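Design a sequence for this backbone.
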C-alpha cells in the first residue's frame, strides 16, 4: 500500500477501491482505536458530512480503521489557494453547526473526557468543570481547519473522531476557538508577513463567533478549563 499521509499517532495508506487505511503506530492501545471506530460509525449513522467508516482491522500487529477515501485538500489549503478566508470560515461554521445540532447520548460526556485527560493534576479545574452544564449535543472535540477535507467538486467532509463527545454547544465552540487562536506568543519580533497572518486570523475568529452568535465572554469558563486540558495533553 502507498503511504499518503503521516501524523503523530497514525499513518494513512491508499487501500484501493476508493478506500484508505488509517494505521495507528505500533503499541497504540486497541481500546483507543475501538473508541474512534465506534465514534466514526455513530457519526456516519447520523448522515453527517463524514467519510464512510467500513471496518477495524489489524496489520503487522498494528490496529487500523478503513475509511472512505476523500481526495482533495484541507480547508486551510483551500482558503490559501483560493484567497477565500471568509468563505472558508462560512464553510467551517456550517459543518460544525450541522454536527452540533445533532444530539446523541451514546458518546462519552465532555466532562468525563476532560477528567480522563486532567486526572489528578488540577483538582481546582475539575471543581470548575463540575459546575458547568451537561449537554447531549454532538461535539467533535478537535474541529479545526486541517480536519476538514474538500474534494475536487467542493464537497467538504470532516475527519478525526478520537475526541468526539457529548456536551453543550459552547464547549465545542470554545475548543475550536482555542485551536484557531494560535499559540498566544508575543507579537514582538514578528515579521510584517507574520503580523498580516495574525490580523487575518483575528478577523476570521471574530466572524466565526458572529456566525455562531456568541461572544468570547460566554466561552471564557470553558476556555479556562480547555487551556488546562491542553497543557495536560502535551505532558
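Sequence:
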Amino acid at each position: 500500500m502507498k503511504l499518503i499521509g503521516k501524523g503523530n499517532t497514525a499513518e494513512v495508506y491508499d487501500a484501493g477501491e476508493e478506500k484508505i487505511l488509517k494505521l495507528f503506530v505500533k503499541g497504540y492501545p486497541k481500546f483507543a482505536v475501538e473508541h474512534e471506530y465506534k465514534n466514526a460509525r455513530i457519526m456516519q449513522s447520523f448522515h453527517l458530512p463524514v467519510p464512510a467508516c467500513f471496518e477495524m482491522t489489524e496489520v503487522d500487529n498494528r490496529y487500523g480503521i478503513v475509511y472512505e477515501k476523500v481526495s482533495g485538500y484541507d480547508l486551510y489549503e483551500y482558503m490559501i489557494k483560493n484567497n477565500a478566508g471568509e468563505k472558508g470560515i462560512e464553510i467551517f461554521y456550517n459543518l460544525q453547526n450541522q454536527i452540533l445540532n445533532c444530539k446523541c447520548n451514546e458518546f462519552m460526556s465532555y466532562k468525563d473526557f476532560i477528567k480522563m485527560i486532567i486526572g489528578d493534576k488540577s483538582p481546582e479545574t475539575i471543581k470548575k468543570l463540575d459546575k458547568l452544564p451537561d449537554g447531549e449535543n454532538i461535539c467533535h472535540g478537535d474541529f479545526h481547519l486541517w480536519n476538514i477535507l474538500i474534494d475536487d467538486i467542493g464537497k467538504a467532509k470532516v475527519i478525526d473522531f478520537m475526541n468526539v463527545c457529548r456536551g453543550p454547544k459552547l464547549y465545542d465552540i470554545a475548543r475550536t476557538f482555542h485551536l484557531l487562536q494560535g499559540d498566544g506568543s508575543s507579537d514582538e519580533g514578528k515579521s510584517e508577513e507574520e503580523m498580516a497572518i495574525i490580523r487575518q486570523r483575528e478577523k476570521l475568529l471574530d466572524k466565526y463567533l458572529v456566525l455562531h452568535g456568541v461572544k468570547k465572554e460566554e466561552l471564557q469558563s470553558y476556555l479556562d478549563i480547555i487551556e488546562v486540558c491542553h497543557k495536560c495533553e502535551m505532558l
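The radius of gyration is 18 Å.
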